[in-house]
Amino acid sequence: MELRLNSIRLIDHDQAKEFTFGEIEKMEEILAMAYINPEDFEEMYLTPSLKLHLFNEHGEVVVKFKQDENIPKGTIAMPVSIWSNQLTSTKNGKLLNKNIPVNCEATRDPPTPLKELIEKIKKGGINK
């Protein structure tokens, strides 16, 4: 299913704070997260035990998710983080992090580990 990704800032989900004061596991728990409208949840036949595989031409990640009635149908929201950055791009020197087309499918795979994303960046950039 194609959805539109919007990366958002949440007061309790701050990457810098979690990286500075937290543990990697806590950072992964809080930031490897997506918020999805309950109607999209039903259309995708999701269950709480599943994860979401999000991918587009820029990259891919697996994240946990929560239903949120405040998220518009057809949209998926993620905290600004290394996970959401895998799906963003730049144009004319500006970060594009709103209304990004992403394919979304259910998976039983675990969330993409932080260390794996860091290694990916070291090998060739955020979206490689």
Give an account of the 3D structure.
This protein has 128 residues and is α+β, with helices and mostly antiparallel strands. The chain has a single domain (2-122), classed as Barwin-like endoglucanases (Beta Barrel), CATH 2.40.40.20. Helices cover 27% and strands 35% of the residues. It is built from five helices and eight strands, in the order βααβαβββαβββα. The protein has helices spanning 15-21, 24-31, 38-43, 82-85, 114-122; strands at 2-8, 33-36, 51-56, 59-67, 75-79, 89-91, 94-96, 100-107. Strand 3 (51-56) and strand 4 (59-67) form a beta hairpin. The chain starts with a strand and ends in a 6-residue tail after the last helix. The model has no long low-confidence stretch (mean pLDDT 86).
Question: Can I get a quick summary?
Answer:
With 128 residues, the protein is of the alpha+beta class.
